[in-house]
Amino acid sequence: MAEKKAFTSSQSKAIAHSGSDLLISAGAGSGKTATLTERIIRKIIDGADISRMLVVTFTKEAANELKSRITARLVSALKDAPDNRHLQAQIVKMSSAKISTIHSFCLSVIRPNFDKIGIDNDFRVGEENEIETLMKESMNEVIDFFYENEPENSDFLTVCDCYSQLSSEDKLADELLSLYNKLSSTSLFLDSLIKDTDFDGDFMLTPYGKVLTTELSQFVYHYAPIYKKIIDDIRAVDGTPKYLNAFVSDFEYLTRIDESLKSPTYQGLKEIFDSYTPLPLNGIKDSEIDTVFAKAVREKFKKTLVEKYKGSYFSAKSESIEASLIQNNKICASMHKILTLFNEEFSKKKRSEGVCDFNDIERFAHKLLLEKNGEPSSLARELSLELDEIYVDEYQDTNSVQNDIFAAISRNNRFM
Questions:
Q1: What is the predicted pLDDT for the residue at 286?
Q2: For residue 389, what are the β-bridge partners?
Q3: How far apart are CA 268 and CA 253, in angstroms?
Q4: Are 5 and 34 spatial neighbours (Cβ–Cβ below 8 Å)?
């Protein structure tokens, strides 16, 4: 038997884990792929069937390497148990094992179901240069169309103004194509541009404001107990040190922020931050409290509150914030219009050439495996019954479309 790699306690737990999804969080070069490989091998040796596993990698080379490593270990295990029919069968099945790239898996879903998504059965994946040419042709045609047909002061010209620093139409096309490619890897695709764009009320009620509310809550949650401890330590000192007032004043601001977050408004929070004036630390002595810690805490607190919240996040007037949101939503709606027309023209050209790109492959599989409401389709449920375990190597590099696909075909049996 070949010498086995030594695994850490955490890696051993991941290898032995069963009964639920498992997400591995570790840095580059920490052995995630080795752990995944060892888990697969041990599962097979213990009786699992490789034909009921899906193992997904990001490159063909990685898939071939993984298949070779597993096969070699199974052959080595068979030498120690030459009459083991299970291992004999698994070695034979390795040649057809579902160990592949994400796009190869997606193609295996699409090929038998091409008629359900309205594509020809002889489609092929286009070469990179071929797809790039079709993209640029389509985008230039769309830009020309809008220039010729949109009136002055239109939303399209507003979008052009956003890229006014660009010196040519080609650069405008490149910027719009870059945005299109980024959106192609999101679950909502182009609709990401118009999601949550209705502005009616306070900024803090928008998705962006809600993120800020969460951050401020964490800010209060972090500093409140620390300040309380420092204040208690100061009050334990004989007499009443003058610097107590500085910490008490800061703590009162934390309390005001916390109260405001119960029903947050942009203007209400802005007024709190605008009114903050840190009191000086008069007469603080090293012999009385842990001054190094206390000073460091207060300095970081002041810096965050003054520079980040008062000086940045809440520096604009509420009227300006509202005007910016309305303008941004208008621009996003126009970009949605432009990119939707581009997507139609680009798709026509690809169909005419009988080609698709890698984004198409993912989106076709996504369409086949998920209903419009996000629930797994009947096809996804059928596939899930054929898979005892799903392994996703380099999961941190997956996009939301790919993640949706794996979630749709899983039964709480993903190793990521």
A1: 58
A2: 53
A3: 13
A4: yes
